[in-house]
């Protein structure tokens, strides 16, 4: 994580508690519509982490190849880069985003795979030319093509796997005492496929947890 060390320590303690560990296990089960949100506030430093299935944010989980899918990914990334609005942080708290790390599995996890696939057709043509001019290499090239085809199957399997969205934020807040809750109205409006987030909160005053849903988007702590 890129949180400040004291906040990272607090987040570790937060995630290690029984109820919150159960929340995380629920998120790890990859149940569409259900994600997890963790918040740690120490002094003026606010750390937020969110994990959701890719379908909750994008509406799909396959690799974003088509232009429309890529546009959806970029739109989601832009929205996710504004946590103050997304999580309804009080403007009176004076929070400034100092670091954000947005990982969208449908976009990033398959980037290298696509790059390899883009060149596979060129490699196939090259091997075909080689076979024309060098019959003595035909058996070797055939084996190479078979390996390539096997690799293609592996990529197909990867594309059918689940993808996740993982967002981490660090904010500095001039008046942290003004942060008394979250309001995810904007989050559920932006991502209607998301049904609920299991929230876990740690502040200087103690811990809190609860479910945040589209019908009940506010959590006070």
Q: CA-to-CA gap between the ends?
A: 24 Å
Helicity, as a percent range: 40-55%
- Overall number of strands: 8
Whole-number total of structural domains: 2
Strand order of the largest sheet: 3-4-2-1-6-7
User: The biggest beta sheet, please?
Assistant: 6 strands, mixed
Number of helices: 9
H-E order: HHEEHHHEHHHEEHEEE
The low-confidence runs, each spanning 5 or more residues with pLDDT under 50, are 1-6, 17-28, 112-121, 123-128, 130-138, 149-160
Tell me the Rg in angstroms. 22 Å
Rough outline: globular
What does this structure look like?
The protein has 221 residues and is an alpha+beta fold. The protein has two domains: 5-106 and 163-220, no CATH class; 111-159. Helices cover 46% and strands 27% of the residues. The protein is built from nine helices and eight strands. The chain has helices at residues 5-16, 18-28, 54-58, 67-80, 83-86, 105-108, 111-133, 138-159, 185-190; strands at 34-42, 45-53, 95-104, 164-173, 181-183, 196-203, 206-213, 218-220. The strands form two sheets. The chain has a six-stranded mixed sheet, sandwiched between helices. The protein has a two-stranded antiparallel sheet with strand order 5-8. Helix 7 runs antiparallel to helix 8 (138-159). Residues 1-6, 17-28, 112-121, 123-128, 130-138 and 149-160 have low confidence and may be disordered.
């Amino acid at each position: 994580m890129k949180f400040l060390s004291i906040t990272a320590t607090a987040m570790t303690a937060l995630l290690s508690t029984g109820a919150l560990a159960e929340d995380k296990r629920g998120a790890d089960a990859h149940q569409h519509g259900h994600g997890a949100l963790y918040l740690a506030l120490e002094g003026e430093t606010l750390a937020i982490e969110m994990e959701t299935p890719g379908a909750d944010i994008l509406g799909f989980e396959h690799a974003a190849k088509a232009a429309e899918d890529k546009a959806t990914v970029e739109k989601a990334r832009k929205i996710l880069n504004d946590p103050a609005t997304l999580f309804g942080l009080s403007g009176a708290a004076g929070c400034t985003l100092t670091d954000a790390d947005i990982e969208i599995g449908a976009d990033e996890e398959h980037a290298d795979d696509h790059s390899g696939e883009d060149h596979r057709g060129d490699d196939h043509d090259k091997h075909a030319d080689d076979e024309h001019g060098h019959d003595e290499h035909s058996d070797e090239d055939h084996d190479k093509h078979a390996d390539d085809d096997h690799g293609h199957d592996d990529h197909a399997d990867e594309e059918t796997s689940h993808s996740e969205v993982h967002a981490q934020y660090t904010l500095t807040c001039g008046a942290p005492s003004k942060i008394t809750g979250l309001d995810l109205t904007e989050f559920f409006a932006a991502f209607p496929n998301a049904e609920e987030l299991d929230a876990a909160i740690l502040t200087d005053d103690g811990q809190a947890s609860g479910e945040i849903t589209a019908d009940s988007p506010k959590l006070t702590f």
